[in-house]
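Review form for a predicted model. The reviewer records the input and the model, then writes brief findings.
Reviewer: anonymous (R2)
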Amino acid sequence: MKTLQERLNELKSNIGLKRHSGDSGNEVIPEFDYKKNRALYDKLANEDLKKLQRESQQKRIERLHGRSELDPKWVFDNLIEDAQDVQEAVSIARSFIAAHKDPKWRNSRSHMMLFYGDYGRGKSHIAGAIAHELINKFETSVLYRQLQTLLDMRLFSYDYQAEDNASMRYREVNQQLLDVDLLILDEVCVNETVLKKNAQSWLGNLLRQRRSANKNCILITNHNLNDLETAIGRYCFESIREYETYQVQFQGPSRRKPLTQQIVDNKQAPTSGYQPNTISYKK
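Model under review:
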């Protein structure tokens, strides 16, 4: 009876291989270095995994940007920090972003940034810049909305005989308002002295539900703080006070061009449309 080694040698001879240089055959089987090859395979596998993770992360970030409804031009690189109020606002904004590195800070309670000041001061731009940074660095889900647009959707949703699915779309948006990590509400009470009572209750309840879920908000308004309390009502204003609040006042000059200058520029280079609260950009 042939031994195992004899059978192996016979097999190698049949396929034309040899174990040692002195054996018959036409090729030497190299010694297999298990540790070396295992380390090589692990390295290649880790590189492939990291590549897939980067690609997956980039896709997630792109989806978050797409769902946020933010103006892509609202970034810090496009800001002109030519006034003290803008410089202070940017400093506070960067501190707010940096604080997200601490999970305990993120999960401890809800935070609210309250931007107030006249038109064209750059409030929406800086809020958008904060949101873009949070998406890129922490994959924070963001939703930017103008308050009046939400109130209009809410009003139209009551038409139950309508065939445009307004009520369904409003329910979907309302759920997004509750779920996103950062909600930016712009033009709060614009051109209105006081919100209607039912709108006050709706907004107050929205803010309180988000606070209970440790969700952050940025509110942007043209009112000063005293007028804002009157405009949104005490219940809603008390909802804001329950947050860890950062109040940022914009007092500098308007960054928007005079109307006559805009007309001249539009004739030279037509734009795609009106963009609210967008400030001048660096060239």
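Findings: Confidence is low (pLDDT under 50) at residues 272-283.
Further findings: The beta strands are 111-117, 142-146, 182-186, 216-221, 244-250.
Recommendation: see findings above.
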